[in-house]
Amino acid sequence: MNTNYKFVVNRIKEAYIKQEKFEPTNKYIILYRAIKDCITNIEIPNNWLLPSTRVLAEELKLSRTTVNKAYELLQLEKLISSKAGSGNRISHEALVKTDNKKTVKTTKNLYPTISEKGLSYSKNISLLNRMPNNNLAFRPGLPPIDAFPVNQWKKLLNAYWRHIKSSNLSYSNSTGLLELKKSISDYLNISRNIKCNHQQIVIVSGSLQSLYLITNALIDKGDTVVLENPVFPNVYSVFKSSQANLIPIAIDEEGIDLKQIKVLKTKAKLIHLTPSNQYPLGIKMSLKRRQAILKWASKTKTLIIENDYENEIANHLENIPSVFSLDKEDRTIYIGTFNRLLNPSIRLGYMIVPKYLISTIEALQEHSHRFVSPSIQVVMTQFIEKNYLYKHIKNTIEVAKERLDLFAKEFNLISTKMHVNVEACSSFHVIAHFNSPTNIDEEAQIIYKLNQQNITVHSLSKCYVGVAQKTGLIFGYSSVRPSIIKQKIKKMIGII
Q: What is the pLDDT of residues 331-348, one digit of tens each?
């Protein structure tokens, strides 16, 4: 007998024996009540396949007619569903409907209170840009995932498991494998002229984890953090949830507005920047502004977070020195990610941490995430060392450029309310601006209508801290094949 069936049969047997002790009645009624108890007590999971009538009859030493009658009663109550050739499956739908009708009384002091920080994170979860759907068109934050060299990655991963030793299956270093940290250090030196000690590199699952570690290492309730405005909503959510005092600073043509920063009345502990490719506007911070920010940070003893999430794409034509490489005081935390370059399922990023912070970040990693999967780290090391990463970046830029041009052309042809400016795009997303003033409610209505057409977009107004200065739609064009781009844009006719 199938092992899964055996567990279910044992549960039903126990319930059947209990039911037999009550008022004598027909055996099929006893069996019906026994299975119903198992379902209502959630002893058998939803959609779980029940044993066939023959198997259950043999195990309980009952006739198949008795089992059939019991199953029929359960079907009438919609506690099980039956399909020809697929057997009988448990259904919890009827239970959910019943529970919804009940008024549940809760005792206030039944459980310990949730921490202030826990409540803060729960409260701000709605700020995150999280859309639980499979729509690639036109979801921002995705690279050309169909261009990812799956076969190369698969070969490297297979080679890892072919040659792995049992001793390598134990716990790993919390800040990352030495080989990968050295490879990333060399890669950043070549690609960005960033020179760092590989011991300063911490391997994480992505940019959001980097920020979570940083806030836990540095931010106490009420500490001041300066943010660009607009800003990536997920970044805003992390800092707001950490109970920091957030100061949003507007963006001008050279990056974050230095005049506003210089007149701050409170001392900032951190400033978060996206200088290579400001999110979401795509503005590149000038060299002069970067130097001025460093001078201000030195004077005010502020730490800088340089979030370089799509540098390889934004700066393949010109390469302004990073804030980190200009910093002579080791006060810049440099954040990078492979999730936005390769594909999000890899869950691999890194940060370069000032030397005085290394032990603190390592301790936080030990207490929480512990370490990133060594197999992924080894494969990424090989991916860099075999020059696959450089080739993939080149291919990705070409694919993305082709799709951007097509998207903008098709979009501007059919749109009467909005327009896309290709020249202002330096990322895997592009902003569609309204041709005339549009309020937040109108923006939200358009997003809703597009979602009804299985088209995912993000709101520009949601990126602003406080009052939204602009409205618009953020489209992720790069993960969508050209033929699908045309199809999806046709569905927008009448909406945009």
A: 999 999 999 999 999 999
Per-residue DSSP letter, 275: T
Which pair of tokens denotes residue 332? Answer: 């810049």
Question: For residues 446 and 495, is the Cβ–Cβ distance under 8 A?
Answer: yes
The ranges of the chain with pLDDT < 70 are 1-4, 23, 96-108, 131-133
Which strands, in side-by-side order, build the sheet including 458-459? 418-420, 429-434, 472-476, 458-459
pLDDT at res. 103? 46
pLDDT of residue 445: 95
Please state, in angstroms and rounded to a whole number, the distance separating the CA atoms of residues 465 and 6: 57
pLDDT of residue 44: 86
Nearest to 340, CA basis, from 439, 205, 228: 205
What is d(CA 340, CA 348) in angstroms, rounded to the nearest whole number? Answer: 10
Q: Which CATH architecture has domain 3-101?
A: Orthogonal Bundle (1.10)
Structure-token match 């050209």, residue found:
482
The pTM of the whole model exceeds 0.90: no
Q: What is the pLDDT of residue 135?
A: 77
| SS3 of residue 89 by DSSP | strand
Q: What is the H or E stretch that residue 290 is in?
A: helix 287-300
125-130+150-388 domain in CATH 3.90.1600.10?
no
Note the pLDDT of residue 222. 96
Domain map of the chain by residue range? 3-101, 125-130+150-388, 391-491
CA-to-CA distance for 112 and 400, rounded, in angstroms?
A: 51
**Cα distance between residue 487 and residue 492, in whole Å:** 9
CB-CB contact of 175 with 204 (8 Å): no
At 224 the three-state DSSP class reads strand
Residue position matching structure tokens 């009550």: 22
138's tokens: 């036109």
Pairing of strands 303-307, 268-273: parallel
Q: Which CATH number fits domain 391-491: 1.20.1250.20, 3.90.1150.10, 3.30.413.10, 3.30.310.170?
A: 3.90.1150.10
Tell me the per-residue pLDDT of 191-225, one tens digit each, with 9 for 90 and over. Answer: 899 999 999 999 999 999 999 999 999 999 999 99
Six-digit token pair at 249? Answer: 């600073």
